[in-house]
Amino acid sequence: MANLILRETAGNPQRVALLFEAGASILASDGSVPFHVHTCPSDGKREAHAWRCNSPYCSIFEDLCPDHGGIEPVRVGREPWRGR
Ligand SMILES: [Zn+2]
Ligand SMILES: [Zn+2]
Fold first, then answer.
1. CA of 26 relative to ligand 2 center, distance in Å
2. Structural domain of residue 22, as residue ranges?
3. For labeling, which of 15, 52, 72, 82 is most exposed (least CB within 10 Å)?
4. pLDDT tens, the chain, 84 aa long
5. CA 17 to ligand 2 center in whole angstroms
6. CB contact set of 21 (below 8 Å; sequence gap of 6+)
7. Does residue 34 form part of some domain?
8. 51 C-alpha to center of ligand 1: Å?
9. Could you tell me which of 7, 1, 73, 81 has the C-alpha nearest to residue 37?
10. Is residue 4 part of a domain?
């Protein structure tokens, strides 16, 4: 099973999902950073694609990614409601 995943990733480098790094320091019990998948919808010129992010503040999961004009998810420590 592991070999199959490795081969598929190596053969399709552009399929590696974007990851929005929100600076979350919360780790799952296995030591990995939890993330979720957003869907950047198709605009007619390009296909929809998935992008991952680990911001703990997301509530909408079908939205443009930051690379395509979407609003960046809230970063940990930069919450707008905190004021500065
Ligand atoms: Zn998110
Ligand atoms: Zn996108």
1. 25
2. 16-82
3. 82
4. 555 544 544 544 455 557 888 887 767 788 877 889 999 999 899 999 999 999 989 999 999 999 999 999 999 888 989 876
5. 10
6. 54
7. yes
8. 9
9. 73
10. no
